[in-house]
Design brief:
Helices cover about 30% and strands about 35% of the residues. It is built from 10 helices and 14 strands. Strands 1, 5, 6, 7, 11, 12, 13 and 14 form an 8-stranded mixed β-sheet that branches.
């Protein structure tokens, strides 16, 4: 019996053929469902695929280069450094970066360091009562030098292990508040951005043809009055991201300057313009932030007449500006147009499938409609042979 079922299934698979049958069903419900689904598909194809996503265009991604230039001068007067003017060469480190720019806003400076022996900064691993508490050659994770095995007076009654290092060691526990270079909020940044869409051989720069030399020397970016000026005040960038510059300047941070080039190249080239947005990239606003802000160390080295090396160590806090360029361009092309038209026409088959489901499985007279939709036909040749054989 099992063999007979298998034989029947195999026979049906090999010797039966399904062909579509058109059945005209006069039903208001089914007809309304069919038209609504077709209307929704038509709206999707025209509204979303062609108008919103521009499915008739070939797309390309932007290739970009960025250069920056900072201007601004500030002056400080402290007991450690005296009267001093800070210009671009002092607070822009390094002078040039790849799509990035750092402006120093705060610093801890250690003057006249020379290599020699001095007491380590006090902490739980360096405080000592005698030389027995110190290990010669020991270097901890946060050590400033190599321990010599001696215990020395640090200040007052506090003793720490002696080290061989750049002395005196840096003490970075007292961070200047407000920021040392608080006037940096008035510095300006010129951003030069060149873009290229290789597929369309289209190039442009963010200094638009409408911007003259005189205008470039005096303009400042403003989203309302001058949205295409490529010169930005530092505090405007920070405030546009919802941050307070003076607070951010103390410990530093990372700002993102986003330049968006979305261009419809079916329109004139003058319509392809940049759009600037700003946001803070380091997670300062989270509930738990360990080691906030942005800082690093660098040194300036000197050698006196006797050949002794010395240095000035600077722990620099500041704002790093990451300039990120996004964008895509589109232009009419017959191939994506035909592909999307074909895909849209194929979607109309969804209406037929949905209506068949409603008719054959959801309506009260579904069994009646099934009989009308499906018809079993015997092989005409076999039937004719049987008829002629009977007559003879």
């Amino acid at each position: 019996m099992a063999a007979g079922a298998v034989r029947q299934t195999l026979t049906s698979f090999l010797f039966e053929y399904d062909t579509p049958r058109i059945v005209l069903i006069k039903s208001r419900k089914v007809g309304l469902v069919n038209r609504l689904v077709q209307l929704a598909i038509l709206g999707y194809v025209i509204g979303w695929v062609f108008l919103w996503e521009k499915g008739y265009q070939e797309m390309d991604s932007v290739v970009s280069s960025v250069t920056t230039k900072v201007k601004g001068i500030t002056m400080t007067n402290t007991s450690q450094l005296g009267l001093r003017v800070w210009d671009v060469a002092d607070y822009v480190i390094p002078p040039q970066g790849e799509n990035t720019l750092f402006i120093m806003t705060n610093l801890i400076i250690t003057l006249n360091q020379t290599q020699g022996y001095c007491p380590e900064l006090p902490d739980e691993t360096t405080v000592c009562n005698s030389s027995k508490d110190c290990t010669a050659g020991y270097i901890g994770t946060h050590s400033n030098g190599v321990q010599t095995g001696k215990c020395r007076e640090y200040s007052g009654s506090v003793k720490t292990c002696e080290i061989y290092a750049w002395c005196p060691v840096e003490n970075d526990t007292q961070l200047p508040r407000p920021a040392f270079l608080k006037e940096a909020e008035n510095f300006t940044i010129l951003v030069k951005n060149n873009i290229w869409y290789p597929k369309f051989n289209f190039t442009k720069r963010n200094i638009l043809p409408s911007i003259s030399t005189a205008h470039l020397q005096s303009c400042i970016y403003d989203p309302q009055t001058d949205p295409f000026c490529p010169i930005f005040r530092v505090h405007q960038i920070v405030e546009a991201a919802g941050q307070d510059f003076q607070e951010m300047a103390v410990e530093g941070g990372v700002m993102g300057v986003q330049i968006n080039w979305n261009c419809d190249l079916d329109k004139p080239a003058s319509a392809c313009v940049p759009k600037y947005t700003f946001r803070r990239l380091d997670n300062k606003d989270s509930d738990h932030t360990v080691s906030p802000g942005y800082n690093f160390r660098f040194a300036k080295y000197y050698r006196d007449a006797s050949g002794t090396d010395s240095r000035m160590l600077i722990k620099a806090y500041g704002i790093r500006f990451d300039i990120m360029v996004f964008g895509k361009a589109g232009k009419f092309d017959i191939i994506p147009t035909m592909i999307n038209i074909g895909s849209g026409l194929a979607l109309f088959g969804v209406a037929t499938v949905l209506c068949d489901f409603v008719v054959l499985y959801c309506m009260k007279k579904r069994y009646y409609y099934r009989e009308k939709k499906y018809k079993y036909v015997e092989d005409y040749e076999l039937g004719a042979a049987d008829t002629y054989g009977t007559q003879s």
